């Protein structure tokens, strides 16, 4: 085995294990820790590709392994988190949330063969979708004051399934040279949203409000990209 491949593949497998841990924690109702596991998985996901490029050791097996790990951590894990979060409220109807795992797999497969996605994305990236749901499900059930809110969340999961495979362009930080103003605008909005959520968490003495900044940032990201797509038509 090529020694240069050990580090990138080890990081990819660490990403997968974080996803498996997030699923286990979700079944125990530990939604905050499940979200933390997804964030750690995202850390490993970033550095496995970076290390492969720095070591000049990309491989077809590494690409496939990366997609498998991503579907566990950013596809199945958030789907299971949402299922476990909604099941006490909706019963087995919450199984609909598991559709996200399948749509995430399709999203990742499309990414692997789509030549248009070297510097940006077509469709919402799976890590962004995972952060949205992982952060939201950290909120206490008291936030769902009415039964229809739980049903609305289930409906929103179907919307996120669509966004994963939609022909909507989404910028990435790789496209900074081309989308500099857009990305700076996004980062400015992120600072405001994170600051507000952290301040709310300090006042309310609930860390969940700080974690909700993950959901707020992804909403801002999606809204900004959709507005830009509409403006270009």
Description:
The chain is mainly α. The chain has a single domain (3-232), classed as Four Helix Bundle (Hemerythrin (Met), subunit A) (Up-down Bundle), CATH 1.20.120. The protein is 74% helix and 2% strand. It is built from 9 helices and 2 strands, in the order ααααβααβααα. The chain has helices spanning 6-27, 31-54, 60-90, 99-113, 126-136, 147-165, 180-204, 207-211, 213-232, and strands at 121-122, 169-170. It has a two-stranded antiparallel ribbon with strand order 1-2. The radius of gyration is 18 Å and the shape is globular. The mean pLDDT is 88.
Structural descriptors:
mainly alpha, globular, 233 residues
Helix-strand layout with pairing:
Elements: H1 6-27, H2 31-54, H3 60-90, H4 99-113, E1 121-122, H5 126-136, H6 147-165, E2 169-170, H7 180-204, H8 207-211, H9 213-232
Helix pairs in contact: 1-2, 1-3, 2-3, 2-5, 3-4, 3-5, 4-6, 5-9, 7-9
| Average residue-wise pLDDT | 88
Number of strands: 2
Order of helices and strands: HHHHEHHEHHH
Percent strand: under 5%
Shape: globular
> Which structural class do the helices and strands define?
mainly alpha
- The helix content, as a percent range, equals over 70%
For the largest beta-sheet, the strand count, sense and barrel status come to: 2 strands, antiparallel
Unreliable residue runs: none
Strand order of the largest sheet: 1-2
CATH architecture annotation name:
Up-down Bundle
* First-last Cα distance: 50 Å
How many H/I helical runs?
9
Name the assembly state.
Answer: single chain
What name does CATH use for the topology?
Four Helix Bundle (Hemerythrin (Met), subunit A)
């Amino acid at each position: 085995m090529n020694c240069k491949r050990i580090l990138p593949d080890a990081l990819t497998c660490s990403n997968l294990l974080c996803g498996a841990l997030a699923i286990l924690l979700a079944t125990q109702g530990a939604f905050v820790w499940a979200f933390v596991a997804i964030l750690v998985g995202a850390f490993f996901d970033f550095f496995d590709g970076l290390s492969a490029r720095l070591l000049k050791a990309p491989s077809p097996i590494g690409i496939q392994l990366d997609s498998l790990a991503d579907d566990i951590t950013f596809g199945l894990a958030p789907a299971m988190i949402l299922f476990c979060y909604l099941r006490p409220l909706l019963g087995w109807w919450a199984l609909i949330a598991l559709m996200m795992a399948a749509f995430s797999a399709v999203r990742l497969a499309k990414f692997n063969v789509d030549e248009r996605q070297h510097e940006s994305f077509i469709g919402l990236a799976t890590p962004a979708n995972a952060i949205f749901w992982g952060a939201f499900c950290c909120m206490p059930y008291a936030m769902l004051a009415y039964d229809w809110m739980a049903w609305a969340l289930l409906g929103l999961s179907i919307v996120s399934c669509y966004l994963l495979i939609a022909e909507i362009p989404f910028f990435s930080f790789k496209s900074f040279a081309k989308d500099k103003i857009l990305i700076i605008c996004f980062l400015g909005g992120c600072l405001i949203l994170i600051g507000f959520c952290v301040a709310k968490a300090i006042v309310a003495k609930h860390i969940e409000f700080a974690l909700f900044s993950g959901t707020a940032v992804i909403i801002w990201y999606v809204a900004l990209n959709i507005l830009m797509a509409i403006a270009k038509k």
